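quick one
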Amino acid sequence: MKTIFDIPDLKNKKVLLRVDFDVPIKKLEVGGRGLEIVEGFRIKKQKEMIDWLVERGAKVVMIAHLHEDDGSFGELIPQLLILLGREVGFIKKVEDIEGYLANYPGVGLLDNIRNFPGEKENDPEFAKRLAAAGSPELVEGSKGFDIYVNNDFAVSHRNHASVSAITEFLPSYAGLLVKEEVTGLQKAIDSPKAGKVVIIGGAKAETKVPVIKNFVGKAELILLGGVVANDVLKARGQDMGDSVVDENYQELLVGLDINDPRLLVPEDFVVFDNKILDIGEKTIQKYADAVSRASVVIWNGPMGLFESSSFATGTQKIAEAVAESVAYKIIGGGDTMAAISKFRNIDMSKFNFISTGGGAMLAFLAGNKLSGLEALGYYNRE
Ligand code: ADP
Ligand code: MG
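structure w/ magnesium ion:
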């Protein structure tokens, strides 16, 4: 996979940079108008890449999406100044890019890419227009962008025009964050089986079970918690009361030997209202022991309904055990990170790698080919 370090020269090069600005936003209460960024961590993570390109003389136009499909970056532009430490120019339409580059005032951002027809369809015509900086005809190299950089790992599992098709039209490179994520996660997959402990919890079993399936032959132990564990327990014939179990649990678990001795499920629980809402003391002890003996730990997904402090103990104790383990520790997941940051006693710097990939991380760990990485040539390795 070519990375930005392979770009020979960036001076005055027009760079189309795919970034991850998909932050939680909310409508401002006062006055009822305007949008506010609730938590800007993902935007701050892009600063290093933007600065890196600017320092080398590149002209940078960024593309990004907001998951609220009709959301616009227009109202968020002033907040970017604070998060990125530089003014960002707002480009409303694709056809405005060419003019923006001609009078280049500094780093620009095109509005929510998912609002443009063709993006989600991975339409090559749309990608070609992006590469041409919105110019109606792509005049060989003269008007359009020179280089495409993907620095949005979290969207790299999506077969979208600004991730995949765009690479057909421009020399394309992985950005710092994509390189870092891929290196960190690949290390988790490639590390020796002995001593490798994978902890999977949370809900959304359809994204978690593929990870379990991929690691069951590649890890020493897989420790389950959350709804995913409920699914396996149900499949083993246990009475789950009113606990959350995926309706299609049987279908989800096809191809996984639920009685594999490397697969550990909770043996005691915190139950409320006839629902399993957290793992119990004995399970915490058993899982913590496994973690303390591990050489590599990969953790995604809370052990219980951590949003309520009555059911957060399992997740907190596992977080402590992982943080204190001497293993190489990789963690990730939106809710997993939200849980850990709630527990004020956990020192984040104890984790060797924190993935911001979300669904892309899970897809990568499941061993799936990510279309955005494939487009950068990642799977052409021998
Ligand atoms: P991540 O974002 O870290 O990948 P998920 O989104 O898969 O994690 O799952 C997190 C959600 O799972 C949380 O909202 C949590 O409350 C829920 N959860 C975990 N255990 C249980 C449980 N036993 N019953 C109901 N919900 C649970
Ligand atoms: Mg989540």
